[in-house]
Design goal:
Distance between the termini: 35 Å
CATH class: Alpha Beta
Mean pLDDT: 92
Helix content: 25-40%
Radius of gyration: 18 Å
CATH topology: Rossmann fold
Strand content: 25-35%
Low-confidence stretches: none
Shape: globular
Number of strands: 13
CATH architecture: 3-Layer(aba) Sandwich
Structural class: alpha/beta
Length: 211
């Protein structure tokens, strides 16, 4: 097992994951359970944040509490990554949002970028970027996303995904050993078409009701 891999071990995670794996689950139910899983992922991955002291005045006295040290940027990989945004927005309501549009060439299985927008920040020093994608399969798209973020000089990158293939993990950690990956499941393998087995099918199609 990789030291920078965290597989969520929680009864609700296992229950909701079974729901979204089931081919009989409707589009609306699929979105609902993905929302729940993304909230749990956001909560767990928030452990990567650090704090600094902040002094405030309560109605009765002065109090020294805490605030987040880093600025949070959420970066869903379009389009399926949008399915994880509700949960992460709920946990990080003040986060900035970046978008990366990339699709996988079905013949070569290589990523093809068609859109990228990153927020303007006063400083890129104390920033943590959460890259969101329901599935980490071959690792090609995720590796491309990480490299786009690194171009801004950002050192703290966290990947959040629902299901992950061993091949994708190997690809990411081969080139990006310091990236932390949070996932709900480490699945068995990729099939000959590059889909995760047992997986959950095409996450984008099941989220948005397309084919």
């Amino acid at each position: 097992m990789y030291k920078n891999l965290v597989v969520l071990d929680h009864p609700l995670v296992k229950t909701y994951l079974t729901k979204i794996r089931d081919r009989k689950t409707s589009y609306s139910e699929f979105r609902q359970y993905v929302d729940k899983l993304s909230t749990l992922l956001a909560y767990e991955s928030a452990k990567e944040l650090s704090l600094r002291k902040k002094t405030i005045n309560t109605p009765l006295a002065k109090y020294t509490g805490s605030e987040l040290r880093q600025e949070v940027v959420l970066m869903p990989i379009l389009r399926a990554g949008l399915g994880l945004m509700n949960g992460f927005n709920h946990i990080f309501p003040e986060a900035r949002v970046s978008h990366l549009g990339v699709y996988r060439n079905e013949e070569t299985l290589k990523p093809v970028k068609y859109y990228f927008k990153f927020p303007r920040l006063k400083s890129y020093k104390d920033v943590i970027v959460y890259i969101l994608d329901p599935m980490l399969a071959t690792g090609g798209s995720m590796r491309h996303a990480i490299e786009e973020v690194e171009k801004h000089g950002i050192k703290k990158i966290v990947v959040a995904t629902l299901v992950t293939a061993p091949e994708g993990l190997k690809e990411i950690f081969k080139f990006h050993k310091n990236v932390k990956i949070f996932t709900c499941s480490l699945d068995k393998k990729l099939n000959d078409k590059g889909y995760i087995v047992p997986g959950l099918g095409d996450a984008g199609d099941r989220l948005f009701g397309t084919h």
